[in-house]
Amino acid sequence: MRKYDLITPEGTKDFLFEECLVRRETEAKIHDIFRGKGYYELTTPALEFFDVFQTESGHYPQERLYKLTDSKGRLLVMRPESTMPIARVVATRLKDAALPLRLFYNQSVYRFESALKGRSNEIVQTGIELIGSASHMADLEMVSTAIEVLESCSETSFSLEIGDAGVFKELMRELNATEEERENIRYLIETKNYPALNDLLDTMGDSPAIAALKRLPAMFGGEEVFDKAAGLYSNQRINMILDDLRQLYGEISQLIGKGRLTVDLGMVNNADYYTGVIIKGYLEGYGEEVLSGGRYNKLLADYGYDIPATGFGVNVDAIAKVAIKENPREVKPADVLLYAEPGYEMKAIQLAKQLHAESGVVTEFALLDDIDAVREYAREKKIGRIVVVDGEVTEV
Amino acid sequence: MTKPLRIALTKGRLEKDTVALLERLGYDCTAVREKGRRLILPIPDGNMEVVLAKAADVITYVEHGVCDIGVVGKDTIIEMEGKFFELCDLGFGRCRFALATKKDADFYSGFGVKTIATKYPNVARKFFESKNMDIDIVKIEGSVELAPLLDLADGIVDIVETGVTLRENGLEVVEDVVPISARLIVNTVSLKLRQQEIQELVAKIEEALKNND
User: Fold this and answer.
1) pTM of the complete model
2) Could you give the ipTM of this predicted complex?
3) Binding-face residues of B in 11-70 toward A, CB within 8 A
4) Distance between CA atoms of A290 and A388, rounded to whole angstroms?
């Protein structure tokens, strides 16, 4: 019995007409920015081995993966993200390529989101990976490219947030925490759950690192964060991280002004593999970040090629959704409806081809029997011109 | 004037406690008190508006960013989970999740897999996962206390305030699962885009709570 032959699986949907149009326009705009900076496109398979997503630097929670097996019974997953597969490609086929590599991708990712929350399990992401440089200039290139992307999506209402995954990692290094404790602390900082974070850390003793972790989620805002953070914890590496981040903040604020730029040192979400500068981009009218990324210097080593990298991904579906809401539109009807009298079909086909080639006119053939039906159809589809092809060509 | 800050309140007791708190901060909540059947109510002098919703919906609205702030019980947060910031413990609406069984029954005895009746399957599952115990969960919508009395379940995981209902039905608490109180939650994007307004409000609330203690 066919029970599910007329619906799509939970978390997926069909995209029609203007949704596709706006999505393609969004992609084209963003890819133009990427190409303009020397990035080249690659695609990776939608299916990958499960193992690709289980690395030292971070593993994807298995309950969020779509899984299936290949003909030999090996475990496959639908790719839940693109950075890890790209790291795999770079560490294998691109191992001898000159560095840095500038790569961009545009492909769907698949992950189980909580059910019944109106979220999609299949989303299109586009993004860049800048691989093989740990320099400040590389961070700046990544962040400024992200800004250009956000600017191209919305002139007025975006904001960018920067942080550094290193601060949390350095502080945790001072703590003798089990993996489970570490994850609990990370989660409570991510959700800015001050009461629970304090309770948990209180059970772990009293040290400068613990005091600093307690204050970490509150370390967000504008430039004043750097002054607040100066007394957070004195450790050479953390001071260096903060100095670099402050420099980056100063440089980016020249690009977009301080109003749209925030800092959050308590930004510890995202994938585990981030090691340095991390960013998130927000658009007004969308309840989650639309862009996120950062530096991941250890991930490629997990695939056997120890080089630094940075990058970000953009949720194309989210941006297209905001764009449609801000600027609703309809798909344009064809310019001309072409009606061929019996015996003149080939002439009509020639004419349509010629019109399109010469002046970009969009022509539809009227697949109807008489001119009254053709008129009726043109009215319904809002096609402005009807052209009849017989011995001659007449517009009616 | 910017868009008002939208606050989702859990209807019922948490709503009353929150309104009392806001009034103590000096906001005019007349519209909320005299709401009639309206569901979106202005707090004119605070550039805020209040949305009244069921607990689980408060989380949904805040997660999607259609409300900036929410007030909701920790019980619903543990059950629903979700992506938002949980900024402060408001201190009211205190109670706890507890595991209860029939009086004098030894819940942990025997080798059989236990059956738990609850309105909060995720809370129950997480609690027993932390004990590495497999259990069968039966979801009950109404009075959970009935299930062990009717021998449908070995125990229940439910919210316990005073324990009177349990006692009157011959049940007793075996173990506390987790304490509960009302929490202030904030949408992750709102906190960043409207940081000043939200942090000022949170600071005021924390100040008021401190004076309360």
Assistant:
1) 0.83
2) 0.72
3) 60, 63-66
4) 49
